[in-house]
Specification:
Helix 5 packs antiparallel against helix 6. This protein has a two-stranded antiparallel sheet with strand order 1-2. The chain has a two-stranded antiparallel sheet with strand order 3-4. The chain has 15 helices and 4 strands.
Length: 368
């Protein structure tokens, strides 16, 4: 909206005296979207939590009796706080993003689609606790369908601006054409990222804080991909329009920061699947657009390890009848080992910050 107004003003002034030139800058709009989303989350978070408290209280349910005992005080905490994140993102991105850019519109559609899936799942968990939410198969089917729609959108509407299903290998500086393998690849990355963030949402502030760090790194990657001179400098593929995805990512980062204001220990609200699935999808989408899935995996290393711990736990138990960890995801393993919740969360944040920095350092190593 602001961009459209700036373009209108530009037609009235001489280019050298254009007062709206700064509003058309990706850098300015990225910062503005972050601040706008943060302020919306913080200013309206209290009222929204009070509204959730009367309708959506999450029961303390866990397969592990030890985890249920540790989290006894969390019983009845309002959930579905992801609605606040999505709303703040959409308002901020709507104000500062370009609605003419296909990549921006596809990302917005994905955010809404995954958010809707999360709302259904969270609603069932609260109002039909005996069901435990949607089944894993149902969620995977919907996630796969949304991933295929994203892939189709990228081929049909964004192929003309440089997206043809390619993967960039950092350090080596090699771009690999995926061809038809782009379909299962996009599904794998999107479904994997959404579930990885969702599995990490088990302690106060863990998922939101790690998302801010990983999302910041991925936003930088999409910004570089959408900037012709920077892309050439770093030797990465140039993707026209990727800068608008940076604005959308900035909205999610600001919204997640504002949400963290209320989600830090002791949490006043949980994001639920509504927020976790949507945020995970945005990480994957921005990386796919920028062709930086490899560096995204490093920047999101905490989420990758969390998801990997669940897969390893299941595989080990089915094969040997023994558990590899005291409890999975791995943040519960550390909790059951005697670490206080705050210590687990802050140390995971520290690791997340190091991995996010390392991903940007590898981008630099691949520069010409």
């Amino acid at each position: 909206m602001v961009l459209l107004l700036a373009e209108l003003l530009a037609s009235w002034f001489d280019p050298l005296l254009d007062p709206a030139a700064v509003a058309r800058s990706i850098t300015f709009r990225t910062a503005a979207a972050t601040i706008t989303a943060f302020l919306i989350s913080v200013c309206f978070g209290g009222r929204f939590i009070r509204w959730l408290r009367t309708r959506y209280r999450e029961p303390n349910v866990s397969p592990s009796p030890h985890v249920r005992e540790l989290h006894a005080e969390k019983d009845g905490t309002p959930t579905m706080g992801g609605l606040l994140i999505i709303a703040a993102t959409l308002i901020a991105a709507g104000l500062w993003g370009s609605w003419k850019e296909p990549l921006f519109l596809i990302g917005t559609g994905l955010l809404l689609g995954l958010g809707t899936l999360g709302v259904v799942d969270d609603t069932l968990k609260v109002h039909r606790p005996e069901l435990g939410g949607l089944s894993e198969r149902a969620k995977l089917l919907v996630q796969t369908a949304l991933s295929l729609l994203v892939c189709a959108g990228l081929f049909l509407f964004a192929g003309g601006v440089g997206w043809h299903g390619e993967l960039y290998v950092p350090v080596l500086g090699v771009t690999v054409s995926l061809g038809w393998f782009a379909l299962p690849w996009v599904v794998f990355v999107l479904v994997g990222a959404t579930n990885a963030v969702n599995l990490s949402d088990g302690l106060d502030g863990l998922a939101a804080g790690c998302y801010v760090l990983a999302g910041g790194a991925v936003a930088v990657l999409s910004y570089v991909a959408g900037h012709a001179r920077l892309a050439d400098h770093f030797g990465v593929p140039y993707v026209p329009g990727a800068g608008e995805v940076t604005v959308l990512m900035a909205g999610t980062i600001g919204a997640a920061l504002g949400f963290l204001w209320y989600n830090c220990h002791p949490a006043e609200v949980f994001m639920g699947d509504t927020g976790a699935l949507a945020l995970g999808g945005m990480l994957a989408y921005a990386a796919i657009v920028a062709r930086q899935e490899v560096l995204m995996a490093l920047a999101c290393g905490v989420f990758v390890v969390e998801a990997g711990s669940v897969l390893l736990q299941r595989a080990c138990y089915k094969r040997t009848g023994r558990r590899l960890f005291k409890c999975a995801p791995i943040h519960h393993h550390f909790q059951l080992s005697g670490w206080p919740e705050n210590r687990v969360v802050v140390r995971f944040w520290i690791v997340g910050a190091i991995l996010a920095t390392a991903s940007l350092a590898l981008l630099r190593l691949g520069a010409r």
